[in-house]
Each structure stands twice: as structure tokens, then as C-alpha cells.
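The instructor's notes for this session suggest beginning with a concrete chain rather than abstract definitions. Hand out the sequence below and ask the class to guess, before any prediction is shown, which regions might be ordered.
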Amino acid sequence: MRPARLWSLPLLLCLISADDPANTAVYKNVGELLDANDRRLIRELTAYATANPKADDVDRAFMNLFETVIEHDWFVENEATARKYLADYAEGAVRPLAQIVATMGKAQGGDFASALLDYRNLMKGLSGVEQLEFASEFADSLASAASVAGEYDVSKKVYETLLERFGENPELADKVKDDLARIEMVGKPAPSVIVRDRTNTTFRLSDYKGKYVLIDFWATWCAPCVTELPNLQAAYKSYHEKGLEILSVSLDETTGPLNDFLKTHAMPWRQVHNPTCGADVAEAYGVNTIPATFLVGPDGNVVRLELRGTALQNALSALIK
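After discussion, reveal the predicted structure:
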């Protein structure tokens, strides 16, 4: 964990002001402030590495740089830095991180053909248990980006490549088969399991027929899920009266953390606690990582997967007139 995460808000504001007396930025929340601090960290690490290419700690600089980029999905603006690192440091210790940034930069920029080619070339050089976790996480990142963009064929090819390379691992093989099955849901009827919500009301997805339904799999311990909440709130506010429903499925182990969270966070849509709702919704939808979302259309068919942030807003504005 970087020290900045431990600073108090007043101290961090003071440090920023001291560093730049002309800084008059007003942040809406702590998240915006930390983002600004991390962008500055990336700039300073890039400048340090550029000025000291042979320093003993240059790989440390690049490691922190690329980890920060990956944490925030700031791939496009840092792709050139990653590709320069790959060109300049043939034996660099953080080449895997640079490869993620470079490949995801192509994907985030919409060039999925190049991203898929980069990914496949990288997979050719990976083998063994020690590289399986890296390969799996990389595949998830690229496949998710492709799904967000509606490029489901690319997502399938990403997972098929991973399966070809590491399919002998039974746990990975099962996971990838779930991932592929989830992608195959697009255009087909969504599973309509019978469950009980937090008010103990029994319902099924088909009860929402005629409306768009965003099914959001999440947990209170999942930082990206919690970070996405303002986007869900904004979507619900803008489109609920026009026919949008949200169904949140919590994967928290017990109801305690969920109940506590809902006391302090506005989530005025239906909530389901997966372990106690009477059915395994996550299994029915092939969910093995979160956050995960499914947008179901008025006809009951799955329309889109992995919609978050601006991608969610763009999809809803195009579909719900």
C-alpha cells in the first residue's frame, strides 16, 4: 500500500498546496483527490525513470508506475510509456506489467485486433504454474474490456487462447468454461431463478418482463464494486422512470455487512443476498469474479455484459429512449 493512502485528507490537501502554490482545485470527494495524486505520481515516476534510465531502482519506479496505471485502468495515456519500457529493457523485471499496460492500451483505444494479437503472442511465451495466475488475470482484464465494448467474439477468443495454453489445470479450465458460457448468454434468455429478496419477498426475473434489468453481482468487500455505486445510482435516477430496474446480488458471506452497508448507502432497488436467497444466482449466471453485470432486455434476453461507468451510461442512453 502506498503511503499516500494513509494520509489524512487535511494533510494531503496541505501537501498538494505546498507543492503547487497556484493549485486552486476543488475536489468533489476524496476519490477525486486521490486520483489527482496518483496521476501526479505517474508523471513524477515517468520523469524520474526517463532522467535516470540506468538507476538501480529504475524497475521499482516502473513497477509502481504500471501498478498505479493498472489499478485505475489508465491504459491509453500510458501505453507509449509501457511500449518504450518493453523496447528499452529486454530483461526488465516488470515486463509482464508493461505488457498488460501496452495491450490494454490498444484495447481501451478500441483496437481489439491488435490487442488480441499482442495477447496471443504473450501467451506463447507463458507456461508453468508460476505464470498461470498472471495469464488468468491478464485474460480477465482483456476479456472484460472487450465485453464492455460489446466485442464478445474477442472475449471468447481471449478465453479460448487461455484454455489452450493452461487447460490442463482443472480449476482454471472450469473457470474459463464458466466465462465462455457467460459470454454465450448474450442474445439468449437470461436464467430466471426463483429467489427471496431482503424483504423475504419471493420473485423471479420474469416478473420484470417489459423492462430493462441490470443484474449487478457485487459484495461490500469488493472495492471496485463499491466504487461503481455512484454510477449505478446515477443510472437508476436517470432511467428508472423510463423502464430500468436494478437487481443487486450480494456475494457477502453473511447478511451483516450487507445490512450495515445499506444503512449508509442509498440503493433503492431490489437487493438479494446470494447465500440466503434460496437459490445460487451466481452459479446460474456463471459468475466467478466480481464486479459482474448483465443487462437484460424487455424480452428477457441478455443484451450486454460487464457494463460499468461511462459504458453503462452510453448503453442505457442508446437503448432506453
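Then share the key points. The first helix runs from residue 9 to 19. The mean pLDDT is 88.
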